[in-house]
Design brief:
- It is globular and about 35 Å long.
- It has a two-stranded antiparallel ribbon.
- The longest helix has 15 residues, at 30-44.
- Strand 1 and strand 2 (129-130) form a beta hairpin.
- It has helices at 2-6, 13-17, 23-28, 30-44, 50-59, 77-86, 90-104; strands at 121-122, 129-130.
- The chain starts with a helix and ends with a strand.
- Helix 6 runs antiparallel to helix 7 (90-104).
- By secondary structure, it is mostly helical.
Length: 132
């Protein structure tokens, strides 16, 4: 599957990856294992970088939902960092950390000013809450 996406063979990533958030498979850890293997395989292809992986995640509209791949009892940024660092995907951890910092500093806020609470910003993802 990684080769299909790396070679951009007419597959819409949103259609494929949106199915990865099946509650039963997430709870068992199956989807985290599958996606970790996919990320490793994808980034191991010659000429493919973490930037290409991030681009694929953005196109598939799951870049803000990576934490949702973790079983509910293990769903934390510390666990995210540990898991993907152990899997050799430290560049993905670095990218995710930058995204979190951007949210905390309001760089990615798309909430109209009149709807923004001046004290907090809550993203559309249920796991991310950032102070503006």
């Amino acid at each position: 599957m990684a080769l299909i996406f790396a070679n951009k063979i007419a597959v819409v990533p949103e259609n494929v990856f949106s199915k990865c958030f099946n509650d039963r498979l997430v709870t068992k850890g199956t989807m985290l294992e599958f996606m970790t293997l996919f990320f490793q395989e994808f980034t191991s292809i010659q000429g493919i970088s973490t930037d290409d992986l991030v681009s694929l995640l953005v196109k598939s509209k799951i870049s803000s939902r990576l934490l949702d791949l973790f079983p509910p009892l293990n769903r934390s940024y510390d666990e995210f960092n540990r898991h993907f660092n152990d899997a050799g995907l430290s560049d993905l951890v670095l990218w995710n950390s930058k995204e979190i910092m951007a949210l905390k500093h309001g760089a990615n806020c798309i909430v109209p000013a009149q709807q923004r609470n001046p004290d907090t910003f809550v993203s559309t993802s249920p796991q991310v809450t950032a102070i503006v």
